[in-house]
Here is the input.
Amino acid sequence: MKRREELTFLERIYIVEIARGVALTFGRLLRNFLFHVLHALGLAKNVRAAASIQYPNERRPYPSRYRGRHRLTLHEDGSVKCTSCFLCATACPAKCIYIQAAEHDDPSIEKFPHRYEIDTLLCIYCGYCVEACPVDAIRMDTGLHPEVYPSDPRRFIEDKEVLMLRSKELQEKGAAQVYQEHMRKMQQVEVHPRSSL
Ligand code: SF4
Ligand code: SF4
Here is the structure.
């Protein structure tokens, strides 16, 4: 164990340490200010001015296994893959998945989710539901952030239709365009917080 060293005389009178702290803080401030000015002038583009990311105008590169908003995957005919086995709901530590199973008209399909809902306010984005699913019916590979402030709080609960639509959009538009549209909505909400997402 490293013992706490005795303070020196200069440390004990604090003034020198306070001056050092102030010099460090203002040094960083001036450095960042200088880089921001250079960035605004189109210079020093490869140097970051500050550690903060100017979200939603700037995007941090996500790791390939980033866990974004959920989606329910689809069969080729557009029907939901989920078989209502409840394994995801059982594995979910936040108990935020609600499933109501129903019998399918097609006798070759045992069950399907009549209702499938995720309460995203409770979800901790752990990915256990994805791991638990035996038929790859739920994924978190959308690359989209959780919704932060929807105009209607009921939208925090994502139902089967929303989760299926996300898969359809991803298939039709591609991940890059879906992400661009998502960012545009986020930017709009930043400017007009009461606008609907
Ligand atoms: S990510 Fe985790 S907390 Fe969220 S629904 Fe899936 S299992 Fe539950
Ligand atoms: S999403 Fe997967 S684990 Fe969850 S109920 Fe459907 S089939 Fe089962």
Remarks:
- DSSP finds six helices and five strands in the chain.
- Residues 82-88, 99, 132-133, 135, 137-138 surround iron/sulfur cluster (ligand 2) (CB under 6 Å).
- The longest strand covers residues 111-119.
- The mean pLDDT is 88.
